[in-house]
Amino acid sequence: MITKKDMVATIAKKENVPKSLVDDIVTDTIELIKESLKKNDDVKIAGLGSFSVKTVQKRERLNKKTGKMVKPEAYNIPSFSIDVTFKEMLGASFMAK
Questions:
Q1: pTM to 2 decimals?
Q2: Does 97 have pLDDT greater than 60?
């Protein structure tokens, strides 16, 4: 697994720039994605994928603690779809797992 800290260190070394600058850029990128999703705007990053907001519709569900059926309000969740070129790079065996 690679962490944000690992990513920052790798990019800083590769590009020969300070880690603090790379950390600011990565942090700002993540914040921009979050803010866009809060506004219901999709974010597409070529070669990686698309972030979007999906709405989970209101429907009856079982509350496992009480055993009663409940009907919670609709709510939004973040969603990510992998870009086709990224999928191809990983190979079909990765996607089959």
A1: 0.75
A2: no
